[in-house]
């Protein structure tokens, strides 16, 4: 048996075999999430709303095909956090306008505070295994 290094049998690691087809990269499918992992990633998608829409977007893109609960809840969190996050970013830019900029900055802070409160409430409920529907949600992503 060919070895690589001291204790590295190549037969146990087919990606290092010399006779393999370089275009064969193996199985690209990911293993489905267990029930606890599914609930964990769904919870993190909601808690990620504290940082804006990016965490729920990443969780949705990475785990949507691996766990049904994660797919449903990360999409719900993404739909909820996307519009207010974009609005808060725009309001923060408008915060640089002389004389009225402080009003825009306060509005952006209030939006962030509302997203935080609703995200924490949703994360707690989803962590208990119950789906959560935000009361104010545009559901842009179907």
Question: What are its keywords?
Answer:
142 residues, single chain, mainly alpha
Order of helices and strands: HHHH
How large a portion of the residues is in β-strands, by DSSP E?
under 5%
Spatial separation of the terminal alpha carbons: 53 Å
SS-based class: mainly alpha
The count of β-strands is 0
State the helicity in percent bands: 40-55%
Question: How does this model look, in words?
Answer:
The protein is mainly alpha-helical and 142 residues long. 54% of the residues lie in helices and 0% in strands. The protein is built from four helices and no strands. The protein has helices at residues 35-47, 54-63, 68-94, 101-127. The radius of gyration is 22 Å and the shape is elongated.
Task: Describe the structure in brief.
With 142 residues, this protein is mainly alpha-helical.
Produce the secondary structure layout.
Blueprint: H1 35-47, H2 54-63, H3 68-94, H4 101-127
């Amino acid at each position: 048996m060919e070895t690589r290094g001291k204790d590295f049998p190549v037969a146990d690691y087919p990606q290092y075999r010399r006779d393999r087809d370089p275009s064969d990269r193996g199985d690209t499918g990911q293993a489905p999430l267990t029930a606890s992992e599914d609930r964990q990633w769904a919870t993190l998608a909601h808690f990620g709303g504290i940082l804006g829409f990016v965490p729920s977007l990443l969780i949705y893109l990475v785990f949507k095909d691996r766990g049904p609960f994660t797919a449903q809840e990360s999409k719900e969190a993404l739909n909820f956090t996307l519009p207010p996050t974009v609005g808060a970013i725009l309001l923060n830019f408008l915060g640089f306008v002389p004389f009225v900029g402080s009003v825009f900055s306060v509005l952006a802070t209030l939006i962030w505070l509302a997203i935080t409160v609703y995200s924490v409430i949703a994360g707690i409920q989803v962590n208990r295994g119950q789906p959560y529907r935000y009361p104010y949600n545009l559901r842009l992503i179907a």
